[in-house]
Specification:
- 0% of the residues lie in helices and 38% in strands.
- It has 330 residues and is mainly beta.
- It has a single domain, classed as Single-stranded right-handed beta-helix, Pectin lyase-like (Pectate Lyase C-like, 3 Solenoid).
- It starts with 9 loop residues before the first strand and ends in an 11-residue tail after the last strand.
Amino acid sequence: MKNTLIAFTLIGVSAAHASSCGDVAFGVYNLANDLVCSGPGLVAGASNTTINLNGHSIKCIGNGSQGSCQQTIAGGGGGGAVGIQSTIYNHVVVNGPGTVSGFAAGISLSNGYAHAINNVLVTGPSGGKIGTNDKNSVYGIKLYALECQAGVDVTGLPVDALQTQIINNEVSNQTSGMWIYQSGCITASGNKIHNNTGAKGGLGIVLVNSRRVNLYTNTVDNNGANIAQDGGILLLGPSTTHNVLYGNTTNYNCGYGIWGLDGQNGNNVISNHSRFNGQSTTDGLCAVPPPGQYTDLASFSQGSGNSWNPNNQCRTQSGQIPVGVCNPGE
């Protein structure tokens, strides 16, 4: 394996030789073999790049959590190593099946529009019990500054059309499963986000100052640690607006199930199933919280225009959730 911190290889559709850590991909890149890296995995080198994992794995080993490149409280890790990364391009697609494991960020897409991640397992070493879990600021799927690109729909009407699609992935053993920051026009559907926790708590899916994000039918279970503002799905910040959460399942998170914080406004939370959050200790992985500290739905310091629909199925609520949205025994 070559020194990935020094050399990068350009690999495109015509590649016929072995894949290497640090390859810069363009066109259609087909991963030819498993990779074990001590730094970056694959880097998109152009717009309209498709990376096919073809059932292979990309793994990072280093001085981080349990021998991985995942960052620790003490500062160990792989220097922020990313498994698959795009920084300035449009329409970068990552297709599974395949596994990305042990990186500080598994798949990171920043800037541009109309990206896609499909059917990929993003994971790492398990978190361990409270008091032994050293992970800190580790991201499974990290989306930053993604744009809404004006387009035209089938009726000819202009719309913010070209959505980034995050479909049918599985993310586990990070501190944040899916982190969406200052981004727009994203649909995440059918993803399984579970067992994401760290020394300072953990989160399943987080929207930070992001808009026009659709979270549909994701399963977000067993995230968090009952030690911070952690848990399942979080809407955070005054620019987190015009997002739709529909049909998601957020059960047995160690923390809140679905909650908003710090001025989120104009969001719709509809027909989600959220139960038993804050009650689970996940076989000793989570602290035992005081009774009632966490609830299935919660909203604190929210802005205006949020819709917490009574058709959500939940048992406990707190903060500014309208009376009667959740009901005991529901």
